[in-house]
Design brief:
By secondary structure, the protein is α+β, with helices and mostly antiparallel strands. It is built from 27 helices and 28 strands. Helix 4 runs parallel beside helix 17, helix 7 runs antiparallel to helix 15 and helix 21 packs across helix 23.
C-alpha cells in the first residue's frame, strides 16, 4: 500500500508498505472503527475521540489547518466542544462524524456541497449540519454524503410499549450522476430527502432503511421489515427475500446491479436490485458493489458482487470489463460476516472455526501486541486468502487476452453511440465539401474525391487518435476521461469556403489558385496559433466562464440544433420517427437490444421507411435523398482506393505567389474565432470535471492543422462541441478511436457518396440535433454546480442567453443569403442563376421596409467575439463589477474600430467582410458601433463611481476644496489691484455667519 500523503500513519520508513504494520502512536489506544478514502484516514476510539492523518489540502483532517499530518492526531475540536463521537466516515476530500446525541458533523472540501454547510468554502474544523436530528448512519462517496435519520414513534395507543422506527434518508453534495437519489442530477448544498417509490417508502409501517453505503459515484440502501413483520414471506413454497437492496447513481459498468431492461448510464432515484436472497450488508467500491446475502436466518451468508471487474475486484475468478448482474463469489464456503470495497479491490470477514487453523498460526495469534482476547469460544478471525497460482500462459495468449480486454473496453454502448455521432457529423461535412468545392470553388470532382477528401479524412483520423491517446494518458484507475471531440468544425468549414476560396474563384476564375489559397491560409493559421499559446492563461482568466459557455451554446442551438431541426421537419415522414428513437434512448437513458447504437438504429429506421415507400411508389422526401454532386459514383472512373498525397509543393507555391497573400487577410479573424472556439470547448470539459491542459490542447490543434494543410486539407481543425453530451452517453476515449478508423475508411474509399445514395441523411441528423440541445442546456444548468467562485451563480443565465443572440443573427443571415439567390433563380426560371437580382439593392429595400437586415448583418459579423464581450459585460454587471464591464465595452469599441466585428460591405453578389484602421463600410457602421460602445463604457464608469460611496465623497470633497481655493485665490488677486478697499477680517472668517443674518460676532 502506498502512503505518499502520509495516510499510513508511520513516522519513519518509506511511503510503500506491502505488509500490515502497527501504528506506534495508536498502540495503547483502543480503536473501535477506521474510515479511509482518498488519501486520508480517520480512527475512532472507544471513548469517542477521533484521530486523523494523511492529506489535508482541503481541511479534511479537521485539525484547523491545511497542512498534511504524518501521524495520527486527535481532532481537538470535538474535545474542546464536549462532543463524543460514535461513528465516522470518509469521502475523497471530506469527512463526517455522528455524535452520541445523533448530531452530524462534517468538514473538508465543500465545492459541490459535500459537507452540507450551504457554502462553497472548505471547512477546516468540524461543523454541525443543520436541519438533521437523531442521525443514525452516515456514508460518504467521492463527493457526496448520505445520512440516515431514525426516530421511534408509538404504534399503539393501547400499548405504549409498541414502538416503530420511522426513518428517512437524506443526501447532499455532488449529484451529476444521480447519486443523490433526489430525482435529478443537480448538486445539493443542503440535505435533501432521497425519493423512493411509493411501495418502498421507508416511512411506512412495513419498511425501514436498515443500512446505507456509498460508492465512488453511486449509492446503496437496504430496506428491511419493521418491528413485527417477518423477515421473509413465501409464495408457492419459494422463499422470497424481504430485505431488499436499492441502488442509484452511476451505472456505467453495471455497479447498480440492474437488469439489462432497467440498466442505464445513470439512475436519479433508487431502483430495486434483483437478488436471489435477502440482503444483509452491502459495500460500494470505486465502480463495483459487494453484498452479503442470506436465504434464511439459519443458513450461511454468501457474498455476491457486480460492476467493474478489470482488476478482478469482483472476485469471480477472472477479469472482465464489467459484470452487470449479481454473481456469487466462490470462497471456501465459510460464513461471510462483513464486506468492504476499495477502488479496485474487495475484502471480506469470514467466520472460520478455530480448529481450521494449525498450532503455528494459533501461537502467532497469541503473540499479537495487545492480545486478541481470544478464548476457545472466539468464533471469528479475518484471514487473507491468497488466490491460487494460475497455469503458465503463453506470450501469444497474454497478448490475445490483453487485446480482447482493450477491444471490449472500446466497443461499449456509450463509445459506439458517440463514435457513430462523430462519424455521422464527419459524413455530413464530407458531403458539404463535395458539393461546395465543386459548385462554389470550381474544383473538378476527381480532384475533390482523390485529393481533398482523403486529406481531410486523414487529418480527422490523426486528430481523433491523438486526442484519444491523450484521454487514455490522463485516465487512471480512479478517473476515466472522455476524449475531446476534435476535427474540422462546420463553422470554420463554411468560413474558409465562403470567405477565402469562393471570393478567389469568383474574381480570378482560377480554381487551383482558390484551392492553393485555402491551403496556405490553413497552414498560416496553424503557424500563428503556436505563438498565441502564451496568451491562453490570460484569456481564460479574463473571459468569464458564462461567456465561454454562451459562445459554445450559441453555435450549438443554431448551427447544430436548429439547422438539423428544420431539416427534420422539412421531411417529417422520414425524419421525426428516427428522432423520437434518439430522444427516447438519450433522454431517458434506454439501451436498445444487443447494444445497438441509437444513431445507427435511427439511420436504419429512416432507410427502411424511405425504401419501403419507394417500393410502394410513395414519395416521402422533399428533394433528393442526397445531393446530386455526392452520389456520382462514376465520377472517379473505376478507381476504388484514394490514398492521401502530400500537398507541400502547393503550399510552397502559394506562399511564394503574391496573388495568394492578397486574399488571406481573413486569417487573423479566423485565428481569433478558432482560439475562442477551442477555449470554450475546453472550458466546457472542465465544467464536467475533466480539466485538460489548455496550452497542450491548443498546441496539438495547431500541429494537426499544419499537418492537414500538407496532405491536401484546406480546412483548419479545432476542438468542437459535444464533450458533455458524449460524456453523458458514457463514452471514453474509445469513441474517438471508432470515429478515427471509420472516417479514414470513408475517405480512402469515397464511401460518403455510396452511403448517402442509399441512406437518407435526414434520418441520422437527430443525434446531432440532440447534441446541440444538450450542450445548450448545459450552458445554463452546469454553471452554478461546478464553478467555485461566487460570481458564477445562477444569475449568469441571463448573460448566457444574451450571448446566444449573435449566433442567432448569424444563422438567420445564412438562410437569408441563401434565399435571395433562390428567389433570383425562380424569377429568371433558371436553376443556376444566382445573381440576376443585385444583392445590395435587395438588402437596402428590405431595410427600407422595416426589416432590420443591416442590424442582422452587423451582429453576425464576428458573432463569436460579439457573444464573448456582450456576455462578459452582463456577467460583470450582474456581479456589480461595473469597471470590468466598462473594460469589455472598450474592447468592443476597439474591435469595431478595426472592423473585426460588425464590419461589412455590400455589392451585387453578396456580403463581404471589411477590415482596416478604421474600417469603411456602408453608413460607417463600425464607427457608429465604436461610438456606442465608448458611450456605454462611460456610463458604466459612472455607475462604478456611484457604487463606491467613499470614492464619491472623496471626489466631491476634493472638488469642493479646489473650487473654494480657486475663489479665494481670485479674491486675493483682486485686492492687490484695489488698494482703496479695506479688507475686513470677517470676510475670510468661515466661523462668522452671513451678513444678512446679523448676530454676535465670533471673530476675535
Amino acid at each position: 500500500m502506498t502512503g505518499d500523503d502520509f495516510q499510513l500513519g508511520h513516522i519513519k520508513g518509506t511511503s510503500l508498505s506491502s505488509v500490515p504494520r502497527m501504528i506506534k502512536s495508536l498502540e495503547q489506544v483502543k480503536v473501535v472503527a477506521i474510515a479511509a478514502r482518498g488519501a486520508h484516514t480517520l480512527a475512532l476510539t472507544g471513548d469517542g475521540k477521533v484521530f486523523s492523518w494523511g492529506r489535508n489540502d482541503e481541511g479534511q483532517l479537521g485539525l484547523g489547518t491545511r497542512d498534511p499530518c504524518r501521524t495520527p492526531t486527535e481532532i481537538a475540536w470535538f474535545r474542546d466542544n464536549g462532543v463524543c463521537v460514535k461513528k465516522i466516515a470518509c469521502g475523497r476530500v471530506h469527512s463526517a462524524a455522528i455524535s452520541l446525541g445523533g448530531d452530524l458533523y462534517t468538514w473538508g472540501c465543500n465545492d459541490e456541497g459535500s459537507t452540507g454547510h450551504q457554502t462553497s468554502e472548505s471547512q477546516v474544523v468540524p461543523g454541525e449540519v443543520l436541519g438533521l436530528a437523531k442521525v443514525e448512519q452516515v456514508a460518504c462517496g467521492s463527493r457526496h454524503t448520505l445520512v440516515l435519520v431514525c426516530r421511534e414513534r408509538q404504534m399503539s395507543w393501547v400499548d405504549p410499549s409498541i414502538l416503530n422506527t420511522e426513518n428517512a434518508l437524506y443526501a447532499f453534495g455532488w449529484g451529476m450522476y444521480g447519486q443523490l437519489g433526489v430525482g435529478d442530477r443537480r448538486n445539493r448544498s443542503a440535505p435533501s430527502q432521497v425519493v423512493f417509490s411509493r411501495d418502498a417508502l421507508p416511512t411506512t409501517d412495513k419498511v425501514r432503511i436498515s443500512s446505507i453505503a456509498c460508492g465512488y459515484r453511486h449509492s446503496l440502501a437496504i430496506l428491511s421489515p419493521c418491528q413485527g413483520q417477518s423477515d421473509t414471506f413465501t409464495d408457492d413454497d419459494d422463499e422470497i427475500p424481504f430485505n431488499t437492496l436499492w441502488a442509484w447513481g452511476w451505472n456505467r459498468y453495471g455497479q447498480l446491479g440492474l437488469s439489462e431492461k432497467l440498466a442505464s448510464s445513470c439512475c436519479e432515484t433508487p431502483m430495486l436490485v434483483s437478488l436471489p436472497h435477502s440482503a444483509v450488508t452491502v459495500a460500494g467500491g470505486g465502480r463495483h458493489t459487494v453484498a452479503v446475502l442470506q436465504r434464511s436466518s439459519d443458513s450461511a451468508k454468501r457474498m455476491y458482487s457486480w460492476g467493474r471487474n478489470d482488476d478482478g475486484q469482483c472476485g469471480i475468478g477472472f477479469a472482465s470489463p464489467e459484470q452487470r448482474e449479481p454473481i456469487r463469489v466462490r470462497s471456501s464456503g465459510d460464513d461471510v460476516q462483513a464486506v468492504a470495497a476499495g477502488w479496485s479491490h474487495s475484502a471480506a470477514l469470514l467466520e472460520i472455526p478455530l480448529e481450521a487453523f494449525d498450532e503455528t498460526l494459533n501461537r502467532d495469534l497469541e503473540n499479537v501486541p495487545g492480545g486478541m482476547g481470544r478464548s476457545p469460544s472466539t468464533p471469528f478471525f479475518s484471514a487473507i486468502r491468497r488466490p491460487s497460482e494460475l497455469a503458465p500462459t503463453s506470450t501469444f495468449r497474454k497478448v490475445y487476452l490483453r487485446a480482447s480486454s482493450r477491444l471490449s473496453e472500446i466497443m461499449t454502448y456509450g463509445n459506439l453511440d458517440a463514435g457513430f455521432a462523430q462519424f455521422l457529423n464527419t459524413l455530413i461535412l464530407l458531403l458539404n465539401i463535395l458539393a461546395s468545392l465543386r459548385m462554389r470553388v470550381g474544383l473538378p470532382q476527381n480532384t475533390v474525391i482523390g485529393l481533398v477528401v482523403p486529406g481531410a479524412c486523414l487529418t480527422v483520423f490523426v486528430s481523433n487518435i491523438v486526442f484519444g491517446v491523450w484521454a487514455d494518458m490522463k485516465s487512471s484507475p480512479a478517473t476515466t476521461f472522455t476524449a475531446l471531440p476534435h476535427g474540422i468544425n462546420t463553422v470554420i468549414f463554411f468560413a474558409y469556403t465562403m470567405l477565402i476560396m469562393t471570393p478567389v474563384y469568383e474574381k480570378t476564375g482560377d480554381a487551383q489558385l482558390a484551392y492553393r489559397t485555402g491551403l496556405v491560409s490553413c497552414f498560416l493559421l496553424g503557424v500563428l496559433e503556436l505563438p498565441c499559446l502564451f496568451l491562453v492563461t490570460m484569456m481564460r482568466k479574463l473571459i468569464p466562464r458564462a461567456a465561454m459557455m454562451s459562445a459554445m451554446a450559441g453555435v450549438s442551438i443554431t448551427f447544430i440544433a436548429m439547422t438539423f431541426t428544420v431539416q427534420i421537419f422539412s421531411n417529417p415522414a422520414v425524419g421525426i420517427i428516427p428522432l423520437v428513437v434518439v430522444l427516447v434512448c438519450y433522454g431517458s437513458n434506454v439501451q436498445l437490444p444487443y447494444k445497438i447504437p441509437a444513431g445507427l438504429m435511427a439511420l436504419m429506421l429512416g432507410a427502411l421507411i424511405i425504401w419501403g415507400a419507394k417500393m410502394l411508389d410513395i414519395d416521402l422526401m422533399v428533394g433528393t435523398v442526397a445531393p446530386p454532386s455526392a452520389v456520382d459514383l462514376n465520377a472517379s472512373g473505376k478507381k476504388f482506393l484514394f490514398l492521401p498525397t502530400t500537398s507541400l509543393p502547393e503550399v510552397i507555391q502559394g506562399l511564394l505567389d503574391p496573388r495568394t497573400w492578397s486574399y488571406i487577410t481573413v486569417v487573423i479573424p479566423m485565428l481569433i474565432v478558432n482560439m475562442v472556439t477551442n477555449l470554450s470547448c475546453i472550458e466546457g470539459s472542465a465544467v464536467h470535471g475533466e480539466a485538460y491542459d489548455t496550452k497542450k490542447a491548443l498546441a496539438m490543434d495547431a500541429l494537426i492543422t499544419i499537418f492537414g494543410s500538407l496532405v491536401g486539407n484546406p480546412y483548419p481543425t479545432c476542438i468542437y462541441i459535444g464533450h458533455g453530451a458524449f460524456k453523458s452517453m458514457g463514452a471514453t476515449s474509445g469513441y474517438s478511436y471508432i470515429s478515427a478508423v471509420s472516417v479514414l475508411l470513408l475517405g480512402i474509399t469515397n464511401g460518403a457518396s455510396g452511403v448517402m445514395q442509399f441512406v437518407p441523411e435526414v434520418a441520422g441528423v437527430g443525434i446531432l440535433m440532440w447534441i446541440g440541445i444538450v450542450v445548450t442546456a448545459q450552458a445554463f444548468d452546469r454553471d452554478d454546480d461546478y464553478t467555485e467562485e461566487a460570481s458564477s451563480s445562477k444569475s449568469h443565465a441571463a448573460a448566457v442567453a444574451l450571448g446566444l443572440l449573435p449566433a442567432l443573427a448569424a444563422w438567420c443571415l445564412q438562410y437569408l443569403q441563401a434565399t435571395i439567390p433562390a428567389c433570383s433563380a425562380v424569377i429568371s426560371n433558371s436553376t443556376v442563376s444566382p445573381h440576376h437580382i443585385p444583392f445590395d439593392q435587395v438588402m437596402k429595400r428590405l431595410e427600407a421596409n422595416g426589416i432590420f437586415v443591416f442590424g442582422l448583418i452587423s451582429l453576425s459579423r464576428g458573432y463569436l467575439l460579439s457573444s464573448i464581450f456582450l456576455s462578459s459585460m452582463l456577467v460583470e454587471i450582474v456581479d456589480r463589477q461595473f469597471k470590468n464591464a466598462a473594460m469589455w465595452m472598450l474592447l468592443a469599441a476597439s474591435l469595431s474600430f478595426v472592423g473585426a466585428v460588425h464590419s461589412f460591405e455590400l455589392d451585387g453578389q453578396g456580403i463581404n467582410s471589411n477590415y482596416g484602421f478604421p474600417s469603411r463600410t456602408l453608413g460607417e457602421f463600425p464607427l457608429k458601433y465604436c461610438f456606442a460602445y465608448l458611450g456605454s463604457a462611460f456610463v458604466l464608469i459612472l455607475f462604478e463611481i456611484r457604487e463606491n460611496d467613499t470614492s464619491i465623497k472623496r471626489m466631491l470633497q476634493r472638488c469642493k476644496k479646489r473650487i473654494s481655493r480657486t475663489f479665494q485665490d481670485s479674491d486675493l488677486k483682486k485686492t492687490r489691484y484695489r488698494p482703496s478697499r479695506s479688507i475686513d477680517r470677517e470676510d475670510f472668517d468661515e466661523r462668522k455667519p452671513l451678513r444678512s443674518d446679523r448676530g454676535p460676532s465670533y471673530a476675535t
